[in-house]
């Protein structure tokens, strides 16, 4: 009986292996053009750590494509001083997979610097490793303020942290909305990103004398009707939702159904073309803040958007431009220092460097915190995310 | 109802005649129906290995590509038909394989007898495995060393613990990782890495007994009211327990740091004892030795336990709780004991993990993790420590290994397929315990039910 | 008062979706004493098939009768999709194990494996980001609760209406038809039923199909009316809830699943204003544990054969 079983097991297994090798359609995730043969000259490798699979893969892929585009453009230059190659390492957005992903990049001696990690949780987990290896890790998207207070020596936060975005929302609500809301409802999605942002907004609103009503709706909650009804029943005139678009969209629909008519603010996690696609008209007039400029709107970045779209068959999305900028910033520094630069030298140079990218200007405080304090605001108007401007300037001009 | 018992065997000839009398249309005959099955399987293979879809921009792109690329489709269906042909007409092909297998079995038999003879051969094999476990990671790249510690090693501890609960006592626990979380948060608390400060800040090593006791208490707390529930009700209650622990970790911002996790790095463990000074740092290898030592100790302890009075009591509870109770066994007590032992092992794993990585947040402990540990245990072979270890090692390393062969996002699809195939072709697991092997054999021949959860309910068909 | 009615309405809508979803768990449990962990993928399939049919074939803004017709077509295709997957599941992942008289945990792992396989396959084929389900009509207010300002919208009526129709149909199938008595017979004592000439394979297969029809419908209703979008992981959380609902009512008991689903929906809905949305799941599970402590076999007791 047992022997027959083994044969029964072995045959399909062998066949399966055979089939995989025969049938496999080298279906590596679409789009990412090959970075070309090394040609002549030297090759420099840059690492990228982020979620390339799993439920949160989209943000990782956005960044990866932005970086890849920068590298493609660099490698296409006729007089390039070296060839640049991308080495990706997938952490699935999961803190418990982060160290393996980081180690994979650290042990690869040809890697001079790492872009990423993308999420704050994996960043917290793997940053001690990068620090002990003196390998620069520059994140385009991990916004947790705690990341720059823990003494990580090789971490650069290439984005304004949650404190700024939460404050920008609060500022805009108290200074620009007319009539000034007296009661603001703040919802977070229980992700570390949403909670951080919402807490700052709550504190700032309270400091401004606004009454704050709080709720937390965990991401992936099946039904947003209840939370939306609670918002409508609270008689608040403004709402902040701190979370990602996949949850903001159903919330928008339910808010509409519940008859809520106040202003709604959300964050860069929600600022995605998908939000409008999913929620349709329900999301009209939503305000979205982002410490990022919109690559499809600003004149300086229009070329980036067209090239990105033609390469990857999809328009650039959240953090694509940041990835692109950071890649170019690294390339600029490596060009300056030579392809044989050591990790430590590159790290030191990047810490003090100043680079004007298409999304914003990159420079860092000694802790690795982003120097700039700019947050931009957008509004959804008839199915399009339109650019309103820089919150600091808007709020300032309002007095 | 169609198990191949001996009595049925002898009636095979008349049955064929009956079939002839029935005159089924050709396409209704089993052989051709199986061909249909294999062709469908071939098509499924084509779909599964097809290109990645493009989401809402081109909804059907992947399926379209699969069904318009004739060569690939042809190859996949061809494989299906080939397999069918081997299955139907491949008896001569299989014969040599079977004789070879018999030969191997015969060759191995004396070794097996030697192994089963006494305790010394087992100890020798155990020592060899331990030695291999100590040497192998040294030969691997650092990435794999990290994978060994953080993705495999921790789960080895978890699986050894869950094996006590599910493999020996037969309690279906779907919330096992909750205790892992309790252990990890204990170490975070006692090292002062949470928003709430402990009375004294301790070294992670010193926390181990505290964490283990905390988990023990948590296990008793959960177990006392719920262990009277039978099989599947226990499953949902433990699942609920997991959700509750997970959500409390996530929602109690003031205590656990909420979804942002620990506020400070959890310090690495260090030993300062009897003139011995050692600090664990970022290097994964020392942690691997630590895990290896813990696993070895637990394996020895647990296998002593299995053959003790307690182990036999667990078996009795698992096989037939009513009968066990009737013969004077305090079943709740033994169930609690299994539960608590499992919980404290899980807590130990939590301590090791948290102090290695230095950072935890609730996302480290999703419900999926509980289900995965359960899969490792069943896959390896419930009730057999060797099986559980091998199963965990295989399944935790597989996704990492697959990374270089299939698109990363498809790995869990193949893992799922493997689990189903494994359960169909080898339900007893990779290395089954001898008892379970016998049970499944008996069940196959229709004698008794091989029921692990000990439920006395209706028989399955 | 008005907000009480408000949350009650929402709870009933969510609860009726849980209820028809939970029936799939309970039916399979009744017949095989097996937790069909892959039932959440049946739900997901229902959502996806409905979404695909509506996206690919339905006109962009139908008016009047056609919009109702397309709604029904979407729901039916979701049901067929769900049933097809459930049938395949039984054929591939369960029947071989049943023939081998495998222990129940083996079924459990097979179900977990099938679930992993299916939802990842779906993510691969249709992308891993949420996909909108086209809206067929404006989700306007249908009526107000008498004497209050509490609104009831079309989608809410659709979900509850569809659930009620399906539950009545199911109740009749289980209690009045030959197939139903077959199901009850197998649930009570499979061996004896087999000896009495019930074709057990066929009954089990059809039980899965019935569960699949309802699970697919729940998936479609969820995707269309509750969340407005489908994503490959959509089955997981509702699946656990529906399973909890089935246990709450008494697993194996069809009416129990209906009651448990409704109750769970209402509990969740009232948790939002009373405790805050982050405690929804905690409240649901705490109540489940409490109920099981005092009524160890759920509210209505188990056994499909006796009480349904």
From TrEMBL, chain A:
Pfam families: Peripla_BP_6. CDD domains: PBP1_ABC_LIVBP-like. Residues 43-383 form the Leucine-binding protein domain. The keyword Signal applies. Keywords: Signal. This is Branched chain amino acid ABC transporter substrate-binding protein. Belongs to the leucine-binding protein family. Residues 1-24 form the signal peptide.
From TrEMBL, chain B:
Its main location: membrane. The chain crosses the membrane at residues 32-49, 69-86, 119-140, 152-171, 178-196, 202-221, 233-249, 287-305, 336-355, 367-400, 412-431. It is a multi-pass membrane protein. The keyword Membrane applies. GO terms for molecular function: branched-chain amino acid transmembrane transporter activity. Coiled coil: none annotated. Keywords: Cell membrane, Membrane, Transmembrane, Transmembrane helix. Pfam families: BPD_transp_2. It is found in: Cell membrane. InterPro entries: ABC_transp_permease, LivM-like. This is Branched-chain amino acid ABC transporter permease. It comes from Mangrovactinospora gilvigrisea.
From TrEMBL, chain C:
It is found in: Cell membrane. This is Branched-chain amino acid ABC transporter permease. Keywords: Amino-acid transport, Cell inner membrane, Cell membrane, Membrane, Transmembrane, Transmembrane helix, Transport. One of its GO terms (biological process) is L-alanine transport. GO terms for cellular component: plasma membrane. Its main location: membrane. Belongs to the binding-protein-dependent transport system permease family. LivHM subfamily. It is a multi-pass membrane protein. GO terms for molecular function: L-isoleucine transmembrane transporter activity; L-leucine transmembrane transporter activity; L-phenylalanine transmembrane transporter activity; L-valine transmembrane transporter activity. The chain crosses the membrane at residues 12-35, 42-61, 67-89, 101-119, 154-174, 203-224, 282-301. It comes from the Bacteria.
């Amino acid at each position: 009986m047992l022997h027959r079983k083994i044969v029964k097991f072995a045959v399909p297994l062998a066949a399966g292996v055979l089939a995989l090798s025969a049938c496999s359609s080298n279906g590596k995730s679409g789009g990412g053009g090959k970075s070309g043969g090394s040609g002549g000259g030297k090759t420099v490798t840059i690492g990228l750590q982020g979620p390339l699979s799993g439920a949160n893969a989209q943000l990782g892929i956005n960044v990866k494509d932005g970086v890849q585009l920068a590298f493609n453009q660099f490698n296409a230059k006729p007089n390039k001083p070296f060839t640049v190659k991308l080495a990706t390492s997938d952490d699935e957005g999961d803190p418990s997979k982060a160290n393996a992903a980081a180690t994979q990049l650290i042990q690869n001696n040809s890697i001079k610097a790492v872009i990423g990690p993308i999420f704050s949780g994996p960043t917290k987990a793997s940053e001690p490793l990068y620090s002990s290896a003196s390998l620069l890790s520059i994140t385009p998207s991990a916004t947790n303020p705690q990341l720059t207070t823990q003494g990580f020596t090789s971490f650069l936060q290439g984005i304004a942290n949650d404190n700024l975005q939460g404050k920008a929302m609060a500022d805009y609500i108290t200074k620009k909305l007319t009539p000034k809301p007296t009661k603001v409802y703040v919802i977070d999605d229980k992700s570390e990103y949403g909670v951080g942002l919402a807490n700052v907004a709550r504190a700032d609103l309270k400091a401004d004398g606004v009454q704050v009503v709080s709720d937390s709706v965990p991401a992936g909650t099946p039904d947003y009707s209840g939370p939306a009804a609670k918002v409508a029943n609270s008689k608040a005139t403004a709402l902040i939702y701190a979370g990602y678009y996949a949850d903001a969209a159903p919330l928008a629909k339910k808010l509409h159904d519940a008859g809520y008519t106040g202003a709604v603010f959300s964050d860069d996690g929600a600022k995605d073309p998908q939000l409008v696609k999913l929620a349709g008209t329900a999301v009209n007039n939503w305000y979205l803040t982002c410490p990022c400029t919109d690559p499809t709107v600003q004149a300086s970045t229009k070329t980036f958007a067209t090239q990105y779209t033609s390469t990857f068959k999809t328009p650039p999305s959240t953090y694509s431009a940041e990835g692109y900028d950071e890649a170019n910033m690294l390339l600029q520094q490596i060009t300056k220092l030579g392809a044989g630069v050591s990790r430590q030298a590159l790290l030191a140079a990047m810490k003090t460097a100043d680079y004007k990218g298409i999304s914003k200007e990159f420079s860092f405080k000694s802790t690795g915190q982003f120097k700039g304090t700019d947050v931009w605001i957008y509004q959804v108007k008839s199915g399009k995310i339109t650019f309103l401007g820089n919150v600091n300037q808007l709020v300032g001009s309002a007095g | 109802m169609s198990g191949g018992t001996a009595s049925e065997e002898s009636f095979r000839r008349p049955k064929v005649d009956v079939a002839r009398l029935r005159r089924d249309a050709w396409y209704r005959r089993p052989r051709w129906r199986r061909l249909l099955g294999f062709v469908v399987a071939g098509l499924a293979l084509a779909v599964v290995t097809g290109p990645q879809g493009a989401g809402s921009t081109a909804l059907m792109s992947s399926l379209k590509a699969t069904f318009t690329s004739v060569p690939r489709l042809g190859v996949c269906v061809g494989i299906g038909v080939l397999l069918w042909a081997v299955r139907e007409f491949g008896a001569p092909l299989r014969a040599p394989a079977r004789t070879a297998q018999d030969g191997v079995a015969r060759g191995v038999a004396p070794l097996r007898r030697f192994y089963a003879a006494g305790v010394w051969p087992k100890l020798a094999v155990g020592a060899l495995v331990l030695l291999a476990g100590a040497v192998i990671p040294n030969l691997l790249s650092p990435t794999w060393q990290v994978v060994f510690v953080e993705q495999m090693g921790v789960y080895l501890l978890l699986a050894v613990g869950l094996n006590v609960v599910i493999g020996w006592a037969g309690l279906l626990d779907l919330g096992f990782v909750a205790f892992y979380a309790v252990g990890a948060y204990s170490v975070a608390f006692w090292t002062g890495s949470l928003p709430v400060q402990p009375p004294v800040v301790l070294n992670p090593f010193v926390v181990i007994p505290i964490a283990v006791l905390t988990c023990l208490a948590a296990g008793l707390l959960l177990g006392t009211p719920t262990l009277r529930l039978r099989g599947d009700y226990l499953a949902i209650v433990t699942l609920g327990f997991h959700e509750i622990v997970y959500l409390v970790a996530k929602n109690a911002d003031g205590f656990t740091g909420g979804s942002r996790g620990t506020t400070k790095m959890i310090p690495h463990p260090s030993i300062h004892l009897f003139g011995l000074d050692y600090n664990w740092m970022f290097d994964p290898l020392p942690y691997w030795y630590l895990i290896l030592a813990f696993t070895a100790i637990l394996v020895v302890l647990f296998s002593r336990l299995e053959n003790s009075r307690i182990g036999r009591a667990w078996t009795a509870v698992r096989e037939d709780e009513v009968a066990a109770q009737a013969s004077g066994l305090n079943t709740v007590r033994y169930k609690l004991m299994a539960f608590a032992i499992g919980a404290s092992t899980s807590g130990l794993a939590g301590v090791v993990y948290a102090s290695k990585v230095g950072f935890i947040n609730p996302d480290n402990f999703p419900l999926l993790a509980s289900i995965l540990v359960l899969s490792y245990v069943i896959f390896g072979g419930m009730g057999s420590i060797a099986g559980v270890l091998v199963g965990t090692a295989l399944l935790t390393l597989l996704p990492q290994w697959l990374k270089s062969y299939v698109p990363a996002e498809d790995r869990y699809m193949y893992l799922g397929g493997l689990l189903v195939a494994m359960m169909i072709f080898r339900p007893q697991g990779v290395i089954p315990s001898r008892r379970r092997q016998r049970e499944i054999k008996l069940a196959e021949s229709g004698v008794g039910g091989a029921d692990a959860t000990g439920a006395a309910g209706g028989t399955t068909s | 008062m008005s907000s009480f009615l408000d949350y009650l309405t929402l709870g009933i809508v969510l609860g009726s979706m849980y209820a028809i979803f939970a029936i799939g768990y309970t039916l399979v449990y009744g017949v095989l004493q097996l937790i069909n962990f892959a039932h959440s993928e049946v739900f997901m399939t229902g959502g996806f098939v409905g979404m695909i049919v509506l996206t690919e074939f339905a006109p962009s803004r139908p008016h009047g009768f056609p919009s109702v017709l397309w709604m029904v077509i979407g729901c039916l295709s979701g049901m067929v999709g769900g049933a097809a997957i459930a049938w395949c599941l039984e054929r591939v992942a369960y029947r071989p194990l049943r023939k081998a008289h495998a222990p129940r945990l083996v079924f459990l792992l097979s179900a977990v494996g099938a679930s992993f396989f299916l939802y990842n396959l779906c993510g691969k084929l249709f992308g891993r980001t949420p996909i909108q389900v086209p809206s067929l009509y404006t989700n306007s207010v249908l009526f107000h609760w008498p004497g209050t300002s509490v609104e009831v919208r079309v989608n809410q009526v659709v979900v509850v209406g569809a659930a009620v129709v399906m539950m009545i149909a199911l109740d009749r199938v289980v209690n009045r038809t030959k197939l139903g008595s077959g199901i009850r017979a197998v649930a009570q004592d499979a061996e004896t039923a087999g000896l009495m000439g019930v074709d057990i394979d066929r009954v089990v297969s059809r039980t899965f199909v019935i569960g699949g029809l309802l699970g697919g419908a729940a998936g479609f209703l969820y995707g269309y009316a509750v969340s407005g979008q489908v994503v490959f992981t959509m089955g997981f959380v509702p699946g656990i809830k529906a399973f909890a609902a089935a246990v709450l009512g008494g697993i194996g008991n069809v009416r129990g699943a209906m009651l448990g689903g409704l109750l769970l929906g209402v509990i969740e809905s009232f948790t939002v204003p009373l405790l805050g949305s982050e405690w929804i799941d905690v409240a649901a599970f705490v109540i489940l544990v409490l109920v099981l402590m005092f009524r160890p076999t759920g509210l209505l007791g188990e056994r499909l054969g006796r009480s349904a």
